Amino acid sequence: MSTNPTSPFYNAVLPTPAPLFQYMNYAEQPNQYQKVIITTAQLLALNGAPVIIAPAGGPGTILVPDGLTARYIAGNTGFTIGVAVLKLYIGSIAAGHALTASFATGLVDQTVNKNLPFISIISPTTIDTDANYLNQPLSIGNDNATQLTLGNGALEILLEYSTMLV
User: Fold this and answer.
1) Using 50, 70 and 90 to split pLDDT, how confident is the model at 129?
2) Which listed CATH number (2.80.10, 2.60.40, 1.20.120, 2.60.120) goes with 29-165?
3) What is the CA radius of gyration of the chain?
4) What does the pLDDT look like over 59-112, one tens digit per residue?
5) Which of 147, 154, 152, 148 is nearest to 77 (CA)?
6) Are residues 75 and 52 in contact, defined by beta-carbon separation less than 8 angstroms?
7) Cβ atoms 108, 156 nearer than 8 A
8) Which DSSP symbol is given to 132?
9) Is residue 4 predicted with pLDDT exceeding 70?
10) Within 10 A of 159 (CB to CB), how many other CB atoms are there?
11) How many angstroms separate the CA atoms of 20 and 10, rounded?
12) 3-state DSSP: the chain helix, strand, coil percent, rounded to 5?
């Protein structure tokens, strides 16, 4: 019942018994944002040292990414990509649960600032056990044995995500 006299629900009478409204455990914390700047040194070492963008949400949670934006702040030398990748992952990079395609080419191999305003999130290609998704962080990494090389610049990542309770 509303306490606002202009509301159409003011003095409304609920049916007896009142309906049960169940809290849907989808989003404990919807529309969370994390902004991280990945330095030159971090970009050059992504294969062995991924950068956590959103820390694990705790027991019984899965982080659900809604969108990713990337802005490259160029140095005077673009990175050499080769077969290296930049992807968003859930959990262990070694487990290979990439949530995006690689977004390195055309972004970090440049000598001018570049923006990639929205990177689509893809479905993981692997159905896996809870242990690989529950209470896992979201990270930017490179699951290829080849590192980015030679460049200098920084990558600013803005991630929008929700926390799902299971």
Assistant:
1) confident
2) 2.60.120
3) 21
4) 999 998 989 999 999 999 999 999 999 999 999 888 888 899 999 999 999 999
5) 152
6) no
7) no
8) G
9) no
10) 23
11) 20
12) 5, 40, 55
Q: What are 10-63's pLDDT values in tens digits?
A: 555 544 554 444 444 444 567 899 999 999 999 999 999 999 999 999 999 999
Say what percent of the chain tops pLDDT 70. Answer: 80
The tokens for 6 are 């202009």
Which amino acid is located at 43 in the chain?
A: L
Q: Where are the domains of the chain?
A: 29-165
The whole-number pLDDT of residue 76 equals: 96
Q: Among positive and negative, which fits the CA dihedral 26, 29, 30, 32?
A: negative
